[in-house]
Amino acid sequence: MSSSHDPASRLRSHGLQVTAQRIAVLRAVENCPHSTADRLAECARSEIGAISRQAVYDALGMLSEHGLIRRVQPAGSAALYDPRTGDNHHHVICRRCGAVADVDCAIGD
To answer: How far apart are CA 102 and CA 55, in angstroms?
Structure first.
């Protein structure tokens, strides 16, 4: 794994303290893209065991604030978290099943 994809290196490069909780939440967003905080908490728990819901929300806020992940707020739905940052893209959400897909912007970045 290159250092640019290593969660600890990514946290350090953004001036953030490296913690097991932040690494687990960052990996959860990467492994379960377009998920709610509750779903990401489940994913993080599968990696490190115990992590409180508040710790997940705190980590998501910090990661979003520093541009490591993107918070997406669909109308009438819970926020979703996307690992894809640094480009201009949109999200399509299926009305029937709720699946989310990235759609590149037609006019680019």
So the answer is: 27
One-letter identity of residue 20: A
Helices (H) and strands (E) in the chain, counts: 4, 4
How many other C-beta atoms can be found within 10 angstroms of the C-beta atom of residue 41? 23
List pLDDT tens digits, range 43-98: 999 999 899 999 999 999 999 999 999 999 888 888 999 998 877 777 777 878 87
Q: Specify the amino acid at residue 97.
A: C
Cα–Cα distance measured from residue 15 to residue 36, given in angstroms and rounded to the nearest whole number: 25
Written as six digits, the tokens of 30 are: 């990467």
Pick the CATH number of 7-104 from 3.40.1180.10, 1.10.10.10, 3.30.70.1350, 1.20.1250.20: 1.10.10.10
37-48 vs 53-65: helix crossing angle, rounded to 10: 110
